[in-house]
UniProtKB/TrEMBL annotation:
This is SMI1/KNR4 family protein. It comes from the Bacteria. The lineage of its organism: Bacteria, Bacillati, Actinomycetota, Actinomycetes, Micromonosporales.
Amino acid sequence: MIVDGLPLPVALVQLIAQGRWVAPADEGRYLDVFGEPPVMPAFLPTERMHRNSRWINKIDHDYRQFYVGSPTPGTPPGDVDPELSLLICDLGPDQPVSLDFRPSLASPSVIYLGEPGWTEVASTIEVFAMKMGL
């Protein structure tokens, strides 16, 4: 399945088809994976998934760099490539979670915008699903 020009991993397509792609109620899962609690978690259906460039480009130019970030060697990746990332869930305002296709189009990593920037929370969607108890 292709969403906004990027291929969804098979594991994610299966989670959605099985009705398992839903935000967990267990706040502890979010603390373990993201290091902070969610505000209003939402795991997006395919029709609401889209490239990060769609929403980043709508943000005022003065604030856009906050959402794009910059590379950080200590907590990679630090930044996001809006054209090679796909928004898959949101933990609340200013807490997006995306697939990052820079490592691989076939097996993207999962990244989260927190402090100090975009951080990899799982090397694959399979690992992410396991960590989140999906």
